[in-house]
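Homework help board

Subject: predicted structure for assignment chain

Our instructor gave us this sequence and asked us to write out the predicted structure in token form, then describe one feature. I got the tokens but I'm not sure how to describe them. Can anyone check?
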Amino acid sequence: MTSSRDFATRLAERRARQADQAQRVLASHGEFRFGSDCLRGGLPRIAIHTEYGPTGQSKDENQDFVVAWRAADRRCPLQWMVAVADGVTSSFRAEWGAEAACWKSTEALLVHADLSPRAQATRAMQSAADSLFDLAKLFHEHFEESRPAGDHVATWRFTLDEGLLLQTTLVLAWGVRDRAFLAAVGDGGAMHVQGGRLQRLMTSDVTTSLVTCLGPANPFGGFDVWHDRRFGTDDALAVFTDGIDRGLSSERNFIGRSLQQPPSDRGNPSEDWVKELLTASPAHHQDNLTLAVVDNRRG
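My token output:
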């Protein structure tokens, strides 16, 4: 019989192994960032930021995760990519699911760069779902050791049997030559500025709390959103979680207006814009907040 400490060690090792493998693949073909950071000194500039958001929420911690990558060589089939995941609030350890989904999906996009974009994205989503199933197996194998303090045996059994852990949405965006692709499972938001004109590519459904997701019992079953668009040197793209998206309207489209500002190599525009958004309207964004901006415009 294993102890709770043994289980925690095995779980930490498996999570680290998933992340380390993905990071080695990403680093072998370019530069990557995660959390809140930037890729500057070339095109496209990529800025990412994630944070807990306004105080007073029901969440204990930030359940979002974001990864960005840019190729070191223009001959690489993929030039850039971002993954934005939002762990499902009601799901146990959703933040671990969001992290695993971002690492394994970006790894798979790069490994399968020789496939068609839609086949690439399918492999990436499947790889993310497989990583969640792999983590969940440990919880099943160590049922008692993994049971949260205070959870009844029957409650924990139901959680595991129904796959109500590690669930997350996932939005992927990536560039191949002069095209940008966007694929999503679940909700979130995305905007594209092309020649100064703004278009929303994806938005959350504020009328329902139901959301498609990946998880141990939620194998990839198709895309909720798919886009294939021209992406040139007058373009910029923003991808964000529903914590940002649900507070945006045509009258209060702060991210859209910010995206139309002239590009800059200074600071982290994603972080700046999220902070300004919270200052202007915190009541409309009661959630974790994550924003990735891919700016291909010449400064």
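Reply (TA_rk): Your tokens look well-formed. For the description, you could write something like this. The CA atoms of residues 29 and 71 lie 6 Å apart. That's the kind of observation they're looking for.
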